[in-house]
Amino acid sequence: MRVLVINSGSSSLKYQVRETSTGEMLLSGVIEEIGSGDVPDHGAALDLVEAHLQAEFGGDPGLEAVGHRVVHGGERFSEPVLIDYEITRAIERLAPLAPLHNPAHALGIRAIMRKWPKLPQVAVFDTAFHRTLPEHAWRYAVPNELYTEHGVRRYGFHGTSAQYVSVHAAALLGIPDDRFDGIIAHLGNGASITAIKGGRSIDTSMGYTPLAGLVMGTRSGDVDPSVLTQLMIRGEYTAEQLDSMLNKESGLKGIAGSSDMRAVIARAAEGDEEAELALTIAAYRVQKYIGGYHVAVGGAQAIVFTAGIGENSWQFRERVCSGLGAIGVKLDRIANVEKSREPRVISTPDSAIAILVVPTDEEAAIATQTAELVEEAAAAAESLQDQAQT
Ligand code: ADP
Q: Do 305 and 188 contact (CB within 8 A), yes or no?
């Protein structure tokens, strides 16, 4: 099935066309500066996408479905859904939980409804895979009203990636998906780590928002919440300033001055102490989560590295693994530095836990899930029709 995968942001729209029968990526692009003079809104952005598709595929681009990456599915969505008006409204109503993302997703969905009203659309939620977390993992120890009235709980993100990587890691080990116990370290600009038991997510480092957990490019990850309340009470900073500092000025950038892992590693190699400290703090945080999740899953079969840093940075993988000796991890230093785009094992045969690198592909996962749901819906509609006729 030919699927248009859309990641609709407030000022940008990323897209890919995927053929799900072969897994091929046929085309990709990004429209930027939506809201500016040239591209006043998401409808205008979609006109540009259409022009690109027509230039590539001819008059009729042959699209059969659209799959949307949707950041927040709240407590309602635990799997992908076919989009209609009510679902679009539901995505919008989750705006308080994802103010920068969900309203922008809805704009993209509505623009497609207007342009291609017959094309089935599917929403694939970044939070959905984590709906299997047990309550002791998603509940915060705060007064109940914060949960019941304000939805304050751990939701977790990067779920589409974690699920995709988990399935491919199990395949690499020759284990059925639903028998896989492991730890997925998704390390990109945004970074999170997920504990998988029996193929399901049972804990994850991001929380109510994607700020929690690991040290990221510009996000702090875990900090004592009193840092914020104390600084606000003392009138040193406003809530908005602190929100911006923790999300945009912290992490690697806060300590080493750059959010780019490659640059930080290069500077550390030249003896820069701040860069070295940033790497040590970031790797230590990953190690602590791996230790905790190894216990949570009852003994991981594998630790899996993915995303920009996880897939490409042998140096950062080595740093993380060098602190995991206590749980029997043995990295194969030669396999670790080999460059490849393929899923692979980088631990020695006698390592107690396999170390894997599995490239993630969120667009492929969204396209596949979209195609499956649209095919299911078509089959269900056909069988209803058959029943009506007999
Ligand atoms: P995003 O969360 O934006 O999708 P990515 O998964 O693309 O992020 O990861 C971006 C990060 O990956 C950056 O910190 C970048 O420096 C890092 N990265 C990419 N390639 C390499 C590499 N060869 N070595 C080290 N870090 C890399």
A: no
β-pairing verdict for 344-345 and 191-197: unpaired
* pTM greater than 0.90 (yes/no): yes
Which residues make Cβ contacts (< 8 Å) with residue 226, sequence separation at least 6? none
Instruction: Pick from 28, 165, 313 the residue to mutate for probing ligand 1's pocket: most ligand atoms within 8 Å of its CB.
Output: 313
Return the exposure string of 214-236: e unless at least 16 CB atoms fall within 10 Å of the residue's CB, then b: bbbbbbbbeeeeeebeebeeeee
Does residue 217's CB lie within 6 angstroms of at least one atom of ligand 1? yes
* Cross-strand pairs, 184: 194, 304
Nearest to 81 by CA among 113, 119, 122: 122
- From the CA of 264, give the closest atom in ligand 1: 16
Please name the residue ranges forming H helices in the chain.
Answer: 42-57, 85-93, 102-115, 135-138, 144-150, 159-173, 226-233, 239-248, 251-256, 261-269, 273-296, 307-312, 314-322, 333-337, 362-389
Pairing of strands 2-8, 65-70: parallel
Q: Which of 189, 214, 248, 253 to mutate to test the pocket of ligand 1 (most atoms within 8 A of CB)?
A: 189
**Per residue in 162-211, pLDDT tens?**
999 999 999 999 999 999 999 999 999 999 999 999 999 999 999 999 99
pLDDT exceeds cutoff 90 at 91: yes
Q: Is the per-residue pLDDT at 58 higher than 90?
A: no
Whole-angstrom Cα distance, residue 369 to residue 160?
10
Q: Is the CB of 210 under 6 A from ligand 1?
A: no
Question: What is the rounded CA–CA span in Å between residue 386 and residue 390?
Answer: 6
User: In this model, does residue 253 exceed pLDDT 90?
Assistant: yes
**pLDDT tens per residue, range 268-280:** 999 999 999 999 9
Distance of alpha carbon 311 from alpha carbon 342, whole angstroms? 10
Alpha carbon of 189 to ligand 1 centroid (Å): 6
CA dist 112 and 120 (Å) reads: 10
- Residues catalogued as catalytic: 126
Residue 57 in 3-state DSSP? helix
Residue 248 in this model has a pLDDT that exceeds 80: yes
